[in-house]
Amino acid sequence: MFASFEIETAEYDFAISQSALDSGKPKPVSSSVHFEYGAVSETGKVRDKNEDHFLVSKVSRKQEVLSTNVARDHIPTLTAEDGYAMLVADGMGGMAAGEVASRLTITTALKLIQKSPKWGFKINKKEARELFERVSQHLRDIDQALTAQSEADHRLFGMGTTLTAAYSAGADLFIIHLGDSRAYLYRKGELRQLTKDHTVAQAMADAGYIAPEEVPRHHKRNVLTNFLGGHHGNVTADVRWLRVTDGDRLLLCSDGLHDMVDDASIARILGAHDRPRDAAQFLLDEALERGGRDNVTVIVARYEIPAGPQREW
Q1: Which of 81, 199, 206, 277 would give a disulfide with 38, using CB separation of 3.0 to 4.6 Å?
Q2: End-to-end distance of the chain based on CA atoms, in angstroms?
């Protein structure tokens, strides 16, 4: 049911699915895609405070003719463009450092996006590469901001954060990932993990030192190998480009969910609750029921892709 996810080129750290490059499939007008979401975040049963932060936002572009003497039947059909961004950041560090790191990451990202000359509504191969370059620069800027704040305030020394984000425009979906928060795609009853954890345990499994099934129980499963903060801008994220289909659901979550709730249970809950708000709440409840040992953040989004209007780009 899932198209294969392949590395399209070695020039960039940029995974492109075959579905994203399928020029034979026309793309829907972005404003015609129905986007529904649910988002929840809780401290959990063990931690004193919530160091997770999340964001769901909508970006739009619209052209409106206010006055003209051109006949109406000569005016092209005017459509709005809509895009949706979702971010989950799981902070780390002593005292208030983790909370500050995750919050600063999201607020800095918003400022950088607002200043960007292009927001990426119409996606083709060229635009996707330019978006990848902008995202990479934004992440370097965020890392520098975190590093500077950490060095300026000894109470924040060593702070950092994961970041798992998604941006969709029409049927095009981009996943940006550092750390061990995750993104999943649920399609026609099948759950697919779109991200790979940047942890010591996962790296050991990739190198063949431990079996993949040992990763969830390994004592270094939460030791990060890639995150934002402390790198003076020398940071690289995994970026994936794919295309969503009608009825797809996207899940972004911190490790407070996937450490407590296995993939089979996540798939079962998503299958039982079609509405994103219900699914997000039930996933949170399941994590708390199983111990809630960490902060838990869950975003579930559902895409409804119309049969028309469509267009080629």
Answers
A1: 277
A2: 25
Task: Compute the distance between CA of residue 60 and CA of residue 287 in angstroms, rounded to an integer.
Answer: 35
d(CA 191, CA 304): 18
CB contact at 8 A, 256 and 294: yes
Tokens representing 87? 């971010």
Category of 73 on φ-ψ map: left (φ > 0), alpha (ψ -120 to 50) or beta: alpha
Judged against a pLDDT cut of 50, whether residue 287 lies above it is answered with yes
What number is the average pLDDT over the span 40-66?
A: 94
Check if the beta carbon of residue 105 is closer than 8 Å to that of residue 150. no
Query: Do residues 92 and 101 touch, judged by C-beta distance below 8 A?
Result: yes
The amino acid at residue 40 is V
Q: Is the pTM of this model over 0.85?
A: yes
The confidence score (pLDDT) of residue 26 equals 79
User: ∠ at Cα 312 (248, 59), nearest 5°?
Assistant: 55
CA 273 to chain centre: 21
